[in-house]
Amino acid sequence: MSTKEPTEADILxxxxxxxxxxxxxxxxxxLGLVAxxxxxxxxxxxxxxxxxLGDWGSGGGVTWGLYIGAFIWWVGVAHGGIIxxxxxxxxxxxxxxxxxxxxxxxxxxxxxxxxxxxLVHMGRPDRMVxxxxxxxxxxxxxxxLVWDVTVITAYFVLSATYLGLTLxxxxxxxxxxxxxxxxxxxxxxxxxxxxxxxxxxxxxxxxLAAAVIIMAPLLLHGxxxxxxxxxxxxxxxxTGAIQGPMFLSIALMSAISGIxxxxxxxxxAYDWDHIITDDIFRGLLLWLGFFTLLFLWFQLQTIINGVxxxxxxxxxxxxxxxxxxxxxxxxxxxxxxxxxxxxxxxRPALFSKKRALIASGVILTGTLTEKILFVVEGFxxxxxxxxxxxxxxxxxxxxxWLSLVGTTALVALLFLNLSKLVPVVELHAVEHLRGDxxxxxxxxEPEVEA
Length: 450
Hints:
This protein has helices at 8-16, 20-46, 66-90, 100-121, 127-130, 144-174, 183-189, 198-230, 243-270, 278-309, 312-322, 325-346, 353-380, 398-418, 427-449. The protein has 450 residues and is mainly α. The protein is globular. It starts with 7 loop residues before the first helix and ends with a helix. It comes from Natrinema zhouii.
């Protein structure tokens, strides 16, 4: 354990330093985003036919594919991120306070990427307007998908408010050490601020955290999204009460994995071993193992009920799912990671930050793979089996893969930009760590004197 005491200068280091590595990462992320924008421009020019999406039938392809699979995946990452941050505040999990704001920023980035996928999958951006104006009284107000968009928008506003309120305290106290060129932004962030509001904001943030924890299973990845999929008659394998808890567990798996990778990147780049400690990675890894175990249990429940107790069409869909190589690979990756987490829990010597990062990467890859298959499998084995003679096939196009590169780059650019604007670790976290450090020193003094 590091004996170095955290200071305000530590959390200001990303803002006040520019390195060659930063510019390299920024350039790589920008290049990834531009590559996708070029591909998207080609899609806009030629139509959705270049992806194979929207071509449901004997010609091959499906109406949904990587775009919607990645959309669900990013929403899961976002929802899991804000749940983790809310749990830190609501449940007193002070151990993870140094990564709470990173989790909040992950939510903003994940929701932005998810919203971008809706725009891309519409085919033409103008349809976001024309599909609403003139048709609201006929279709839009009766569409279950409107609930999806509404909930995601509400969560974005909730998360942004949550983040903005916690930033006011930090920006006000660290203002003298923040760059003057961003003064207009800091003035907006601290508009009307006074130290008397700190207790009020603490209560507001607590209630926002409570709302997040309550809404998560009811309206977000445990509610609206799985309900929407259960309403689609062509997807017999998606029905069942277990879908909500399974969606929530996979969201938390993805979020914890992403936060571990982001936390490690900042720790290594800015020498934050004494802020984002090994103890945080161990704890996050154990939570990852817990939610991974839940997810696999829910998968088992779905398979057993579908194959042995479900109607014929559901049984056929579930059997096709468990026999699909993509599903087998995804579950093997997730189960293998769970085995490692369990073993390193028994033998702590097997823990290392690099192994934890590898485990996080494997989980993210496995959950993304599962989500893509999730939205595709129902179209490959529809209830009415109307394409049995010439079944369609689907594999993501280059443009779709570039969309994943582009949205990942978009989230990376968000972190790279925010890290130069505001502290990505809360001042409260530094104050808490400093208090723990002083307490540890007092506890060890008698031993030193002896």
